[in-house]
Amino acid sequence: MCGIYLTNIPFEDNVVKEKLESISFRGPDFTGIDKVGDITFGHLRLAILDLDTRSNQPMFYEDLALVFNGEIYNYKDIKIELIELGYEFKTESDTEVLLIGFKHWGKSVLDKTNGMFAFSIYNSTTNTLFSARDRMGVKPFYYYWNGSELEICSQIRPMLKGKQINEEAISMFLDCMFVPSPYTIAKDIYKLPPGCYMEVNFNTNELRVEEYWNLKPVKIKDIPYEEAKKELHELLKDAVKIRLQSDVPIGSFLSGGIDSALVSSIASKVSPTQINTFSIGFKDPKYDESKIAEQYAEIINSNHTTTICSPDDILELIPKLTEVYDEPFADSSALPSLLLNKVTKQYVTVALSGDGGDESFIGYPYFDSLVRNKKIIDIPYPIRKFLSNPTLLKLFGMNSHRVRNALSTKTRNDFIENIFSRKGLLLKKKNQDYMKHYQGYKKWSDIFLQKAADLNIKLWLENDSNVKVDRASMAYSVEVRSPFLDYRVVEYARTLPMHFRYEKGRQKKILRDLLKEYIPEEVFNQPKRGFAVPIGNWMRKELKDEFLTALNDDFLNKVPNLNVEKFKTLLDEHMSGKAKHTPNIWKLFVLSKWYDEFGFN
């Protein structure tokens, strides 16, 4: 887990050093800067495997030079194969395995890797560059390209100086609380999409992006439930086991939910030593899961640490939010995530998490909403449009957000997309061009819930969940590994009959049945609270002055395409207690802090 940097722009050495220092939290153990011809390499190392300096980067092999961020979990198997082919190794790192593997197989090495990664390999003989990002988009990869000049980095901050703001990206952010790939907040800077590689030929100034992995059309297995449960269990055990490889202390995040409980339970069985587990709690019982997590920890015999989060803790972390989330990012659960990693770093450097379980095993509350409202969506649109009249909705007591959406959207797919997008609620002019990059979900499955899960994996998981976890963990130099994001688990889950995962409102059925083998059902069968914070209440009370100061007229009037009057109405309604508009207010607050941090006025 590190930070990578590469450019052919002839920056002075001190400029490159300053760029790396701006994201030094990603790799505090070693900073490496080197040049090969016109290419400058930079690397920030967080040492996890083979702590010796021999594994520092940039790393070289014959005419190849590499900068690499992440982990190749099956590197030992790949290494054995390469040794049998006659290659010799000087380190015990996965970095060297990746480099020599590319030397032998070229881009086909991607098909052999199981990991989270973003890397670039320069070939000095051919004057070409090969870069790739992992299948699920766990690790970030930003690049600037103007037709001849290239700059690559793990974060956008070192690349922002002198760039123009991408005003369309502001609209995307206000629509879905993040800037979705391949776009970024700056013009001419892009994200390499997950499951893609990029080839640059510096001789001809050609850049090409190609896909090497994606979700595929679903083929449902004809398999008995107990056999599927056994196969999934074995797959999860292996996914956990290979993520326990580390030369530094390792632990596991443990909330009150099913996913982290299952990961931690499996880890406690396959780990040769007692595992450390960590959770965040809140004084408000509506948000607090710490007591359930402590029960889990006692049952699986982990060494557990609980940290209670207060409004003061959140206020202190707001500057950290803009420091490490260097694009506007409005998932408020990033705040407790930062606090969790801050505490975790005091004990371990690597932590397992349950991220990804909800996507593959139908765990989010909106899945229930889709099922409840499916009959409404199937009513012919003209009738639904008539029924969407606000007066009629109030008369029949059907004025919920999801019901209004189900009545007013033209198709099932529109209803699914509404889950992840506000459809221009805060905008003067709607702009949803970004959705064209995520339309694959329509063709991979005919199953309503699977369509929603696939869009969740492609749009939300990469741009929200993975960003949240990467930046929050890297802020404190912690590496987070998520067994549910093992591509084998994702692929396997999609082949299971839907009723194995979701049955009569019982979400994550198969995971719950697996967890019963470790923890009694009466302990974990409690309402899920989510990793949220009571930010809506805090902005009316403890943080009110902070919000009103940030959301002043000068700021609001300079936000491109923002419907200022509509937003101010929402703000007044929320602050007076007439309604709740927490997500929309938080978006603008985060954006104001981003403007202040990066000087875009």
Written account of the structure:
The chain has four domains: 2-211, 4-Layer Sandwich (Glutamine Phosphoribosylpyrophosphate, subunit 1, domain 1); 225-355 and 453-524, HUPs (Rossmann fold, 3-Layer(aba) Sandwich), CATH 3.40.50.620; 365-441, no CATH class; 535-598, no CATH class. The two termini are 34 Å apart. Helices cover 43% and strands 16% of the residues. The chain is globular and about 75 Å long. The strands form four sheets. It has a six-stranded antiparallel beta sheet, covered by helices on one side. The protein has a six-stranded antiparallel beta sheet with strand order 4-5-6-7-11-12, covered by helices on one side. A five-stranded parallel beta sheet has the order 15-14-13-16-17, sandwiched between helices. The longest helix is centred in the last third of the chain and has 27 residues, at 448-474. It contains 27 helices and 19 strands. With 601 residues, it is of the alpha+beta class. α9 crosses α10 (334-344).
Helix-strand layout with pairing:
Blueprint: E1 2-7, H1 13-21, E2 30-36, E3 39-45, E4 59-61, E5 64-72, H2 75-84, H3 94-105, H4 109-112, E6 115-123, E7 128-133, E8 142-145, E9 150-153, H5 167-176, E10 189-191, E11 196-201, E12 206-211, H6 225-242, E13 250-253, H7 258-270, E14 276-282, H8 290-300, E15 303-309, H9 311-324, H10 334-344, E16 350-352, H11 357-361, H12 365-377, H13 381-387, H14 390-395, H15 401-408, H16 412-420, H17 441-444, H18 448-474, E17 479-481, H19 487-495, H20 498-501, E18 502-503, E19 506-507, H21 509-515, H22 521-524, H23 535-538, H24 544-550, H25 553-557, H26 564-576, H27 582-598
Helix pairs in contact: 2-3, 6-7, 6-19, 7-21, 9-10, 10-18, 12-15, 12-16, 16-18
